[in-house]
Amino acid sequence: DTSLAEVNLFSPSMPISPSSMINQYKLEDEPELRDLFITVDDPESHITAIETFITYRVVTKTSRGEFDSSEYEVRRRYQDFLWLKSKLEEAHPTLIIPPLPEKFIMKGMVERFSDEFIETRRKALHKFLNRIADHPTLTFNEDFKVFLTAQAWELSSHKKQGPSLLSRMGQTVRAVASSVRGGVKNRPEMFTEMNDYVETFSQKINVLDKIAHRIYKEEREYFNEMKEYGPIHTLWSASEEDIADSLKGVASCIDKCCKATEKRMAGLSENLLPILHEYVLYSEILMGVLKRRDQIQGELDSKVDALANKKTEKDLFSEEIGKLEDKVECANNALKADWDRWKQNMQCDMRSTFTNVAENNLRYYEECLATWESFLASQTVDLHVEEDSEDRP
Amino acid sequence: MEECLAKKMEITVSEAEKRTGRNAVNMQETYTAYLIETRVVESQNEGQCAPVDSLWRRYSEFELLRNYLSVTYPHIVVPPLPEKRADFVWHKLSADNMDPDFVERRRIGLENFLLRVASHPVLCQDKIFYSFLTQEGGWKEMVNETGFQLKADSRLKALNATFRVKNPDKRFTELKHYSDELQSVISHLLRVRARVADRLYGVYKVHGNYGRVFSEWSAIEKEMGDGLQSAGHHMDVYAASIDDILEEEEHYADQLKEYLFYAEALRAVCRKHELMQYDLEMAAQDLTSKKQQCEELATGTVRTFSLKGMTSKLFGQETPEQREAKIKVLEEQIQEGEEQLKSKNLEGRDFVKSAWADIERFKEQKNHDLKEALISYAVMQISMCKKGIQVWTNAKECFSKM
């Protein structure tokens, strides 16, 4: 029996917050019809003779008929996620498959198995599976079902099925051969516009990602200095009598603001940074999807060109061309629909993320304001008391 | 007691001007001159406004004035001058003495100095100070004619006294420790404040980068465009707001700096006490040894080892006449010494009394001023928070419309 109260869908962090519940309703077209709930948690380290790796627990709760049971619990490692992604890309070359967290993160100099790294990855993997579950087409993918339900040995044997690596490589070579710069000259206007959009979007989202990281860094440096600032006032109060209370008051205010800054930083790293990073990856995915569409188009175009040069075997060709034309039409439609959906989701995500950033900052300033105002009130009360006692002879 | 000059006369340092001139070694130099304006306050005729007198002074003349006051009134905690060179600077501010912001803050500091002196019950009555405010030409000569430089104690002598004094007044020893602590803690505070200001500047300015990206991004978005664009504008406002905020904070830092320098003035009074006390102890010691010598000569007993004693043993004793002469000289010296000791004692007690009175006055002033400064700091923080709330409320609205 599934219930919204138990499992939180889009917030990767486990405690349910009201705002993330609201986010779910914004993101989903028909929330009442949700019938698949997935969580990724409990990272565990496994040490074998050959390697060390982490597995994550994937819990699925569902009311769908295609599933034999209503609840599943499996363990998956990063490799398994990679496998799933490549199977989805294979099956749906012009659908926008959600991004996976990267294999390694160089720039942060985060050690491969640090707690921070594992937690960031866990959240991203949780997001990945939920975005798939949310996708009208991908959610019914067979490999996705296997991923969610199969025990370790079942998954291994399932992976070995399907076209061999060699034949898959052959497909790729043929695709490339038939589309060196294929699909571009007959590309419908809509997809050229998409291409232009993605290029600019990619630039901008990368810059935003950098800005967000810089803001985080500056806030952290500010926090580090603030930590030292309050205590000096306390130290000073030790040599004073009359103004000791005022000094201690200031020290306490500064310390409270310091804590508030820490909260603000945490807000950034929990919300803005992961979303922007996800969309940086998304922009690469979009470019890949557009290229694949061009390749499919290219296959058709080169066959059409070949037909123009051949006088014989026209019937054979026209059947093949018919099939390719269908393929192109399917690919285009799939992409168009998924594109619109992606844009809507992106707009939603950006709106809620940046609104959250603003709320974070508001909370920070409101907390600091309250602290200083109460200090000021305490000081002016003293002043009035002093003034009164001065008036009396 | 006569009313403070500050109540009878309006004093302002209203302008600062860059000048070029020739210095003592006839080399061209650039310096800043400050315009001091004074106006006598007519309490009876409300309607009538006395004319404003003005003259120009440069920083070195202020320094001369302060040196004169410190030497002439060693029992007074003399108000300090604003710093000569920009210190505790966070890196966005210039450390250049010619920088207009620094000059402006110095102008305010110099005015504050004059007002402090003018409202001091003792210092405000000084003629040299009055001439400083009112007499443009010949003031330097006038100061030098007082011969105050001769009265100044050598730093070496003072240092010697600090180490060797045996019985300084306990209160001065405590005060010395307090002023050391005050100096140390305020320096530390100012250093960290400068670093905090630097970092705060960084946080605000980085948000300014949002404006341009949002604007460029909005160009490719149909529905999100307006929200992005206007949010970006608010981020620009946010980034720009830090400049005024930090400029105001500089004035707070200047208030703390004044008391940092006041700590030095406190130490100077303690040093003077130590010097006087040491002088007294030396004079008493000298007197005691002379009395002893006299006694030895008179009774013929050598109680302590002395070179004279040894030489007289080696080279023969003196004649009774010689001894008589010596005793007479010593007795004169002893009498002189006792009078001197008496007057030194009196001087010392007077100094302690008047110094302590001024120190009590200073303590009250310090507590009042610092408390006010802390309150003004809180007010600044509140204003900064309110500005932040306004900007982010606006930004939130724009984001929610994306």
UniProtKB/TrEMBL annotation, chain A:
Listed Gene3D superfamilies: Arfaptin homology (AH) domain/BAR domain (1.20.1270.60), Phox-like domain (3.30.1520.10)
Coiled coil (UniProt feature): 307-334
CDD domains noted in UniProt: BAR_SNX7, PX_SNX7
A GO cellular component annotation in the UniProt record: early endosome
Domain PX: residue ranges: 34-155
SUPFAM superfamilies, per the entry: BAR/IMD domain-like (SSF103657), PX domain (SSF64268)
One GO term of the biological process aspect: autophagy of mitochondrion
GO MF terms, alphabetically ordered: phosphatidylinositol binding
Keywords for this protein: Coiled coil, Protein transport, Transport
SMART domains noted in UniProt: PX (SM00312)
InterPro entries referenced in this protein's UniProt entry, alphabetically: AH/BAR_dom_sf, BAR_SNX7, PX_dom, PX_dom_sf, PX_SNX7
Any one Pfam family match given in the protein's UniProt record, by short name: PX
PANTHER family (alphabetical): SORTING NEXIN-4, SORTING NEXIN-7
Family note: Belongs to the sorting nexin family.
Protein name: SNX7 protein
Automatic annotation (TrEMBL), chain B:
Keyword vocabulary terms for this entry: Protein transport, Transport
Gene that this sequence comes from: Snx4
GO biological process: positive regulation of autophagosome assembly; protein transport
Protein name: SNX4 protein
Recorded GO CC terms: early endosome membrane; plasma membrane; SNARE complex
Originating species: Herpetotheres cachinnans
InterPro entries, per database record: AH/BAR_dom_sf, PX_dom, PX_dom_sf, PX_SNX4, SNX4, SNX4_BAR
Family classification: Belongs to the sorting nexin family.
Family matches, as PANTHER family: SORTING NEXIN-4 (PTHR46596:SF1)
Entry superkingdom: Eukaryota
The PX domain, residue ranges: 12-139
Entry-linked SUPFAM superfamilies: PX domain
Pfam families: PX (PF00787)
GO molecular function: phosphatidylinositol-3-phosphate binding
